[in-house]
Amino acid sequence: MARDHRTVLVTGGAGFVGSHLATMLKRDRDGARVIAFDNLKRRGSELALARLAAAGVEFVHGDVRAAADLAEVGAFDLLVDCSAEPSVHAGYDGGAEYLVDTNLGGTARCLDAARRHGADVLFLSTSRVYPIAGLRGLPLERRGDRLDLAPDAAGTGWTHAGVARDFPLEGARSLYGATKLASELLVHEYGAMYGLRTVVNRCGVLTGPWQMGKVDQGFFVLWAARHLYGGPLAYMGFGGEGLQVRDILHVADLYDLLARQLAALDRHAGRTYNVGGGRELSLSLRELSVLCGAAAGTDRTIGGVADTAPADVPWYVTDAGEVRAAAEWMPQRRLDAILEEVFRWLTDQRSLLEPILGMSGGHRTRG
């Protein structure tokens, strides 16, 4: 079985997370060949190509749904699977084929390629594997400008600290969440059946420079961009007050965790972890608006739409205590530093980014 990871395949490698992980893996693995594999479907993913090339990462244009495309890559020792249709709202318009084929069929194709080459696998999953009704059923109350749990509140798989890995999985979670949960099962089956070392990380909200924020993914960057560039914003759902809460994690902190997992892979193989910034890095949309307004020097009015979309949840904070203990890992980048970095990037790259993140893109942010 592969141990040295001299050839690393990052699927979804031109996406926000994949491109960052690919460049950092290349930076830290002297002499390793790192391949970013992507179909460039997402708007803005083409902007990653220059950064990948400058870092010495090879780019292969291909689709995870096509076994032949993956075969053309050749042998690899480590698969970092970041490929996905990432929108939790995907499929609600009746078109689910691409979502299911990419997120579930693509995982199967990637795992089969890993099996052929005896490669280790790091699979990035999502917090959206947890059922919508269960998350909506948490005993939330308004506390200042956010919804929150009482300090002594607790139940199966959740406490004031956040949602843990053993949160009940019974119930509907969106097609996006379902395909990722099914993919997790495939990852573990391939590990058990073929002797692959696999790790599943259920990630919450990831952020950082070069994220092309949209309504349904990357709200932190989108909110900052709209405060800087202008363009409409509205609080969507849960009364339209902007009280819904998420925790965020800088993509470089995610990489630091993955590097620790790779350094002790036998210890982590077969495990599933909840990964996120936790309560310390949580905020509501209303709180984010205050921070963005101060950073941009603007005081803008944000509208609200009370109606809640089917896939929206009012509160998700990651209880990452299990992975913090197992990997001896803690996020190092705090909210103020992340926001400062994002605004600096938005300012420095304004001519490139404003057409994508400004007035012309989607403007509402959901729960």
Binned strand content: 15-25%
Count the helices. How many? 13
Number of beta strands: 19
- Average pLDDT score: 94
Poorly predicted ranges (pLDDT <50, ≥5 residues)?
Answer: none
Q: What general form does the structure show?
A: globular
Largest sheet: 7 strands, parallel
- Span between termini: 43 Å
Portion of residues within helices: 25-40%
* Class from helix and strand fractions: alpha/beta
In spatial order, strands of the major sheet run: 3-2-1-4-5-11-15
How large is the radius of gyration? 20 Å
How is this structure best described in words?
With 367 residues, the protein is an alpha/beta fold. It has 13 helices and 19 strands. Helix 4 (97-117) packs parallel to helix 6 (175-194).
Which features characterize this protein?
367 residues, alpha/beta, seven-stranded parallel sheet, four-stranded mixed sheet, 13 helices
What is the strand and helix layout of this fold?
Blueprint: E1 7-11, H1 16-28, E2 33-38, H2 48-54, E3 58-61, H3 67-71, E4 78-81, H4 97-117, E5 120-126, H5 132-136, E6 141-143, E7 146-148, E8 154-155, E9 158-159, E10 162-163, H6 175-194, E11 198-203, E12 205-207, H7 219-229, E13 234-236, E14 245-250, H8 251-263, H9 265-268, E15 271-275, E16 282-284, H10 285-296, E17 303-305, E18 315-316, H11 321-327, H12 335-348, H13 350-357, E19 364-365
Parallel strand pairs: 1-2, 1-4, 2-3, 4-5, 5-11, 11-15, 12-14, 13-17, 13-19, 14-18
Antiparallel strand pairs: 6-7, 8-9, 9-10, 14-16
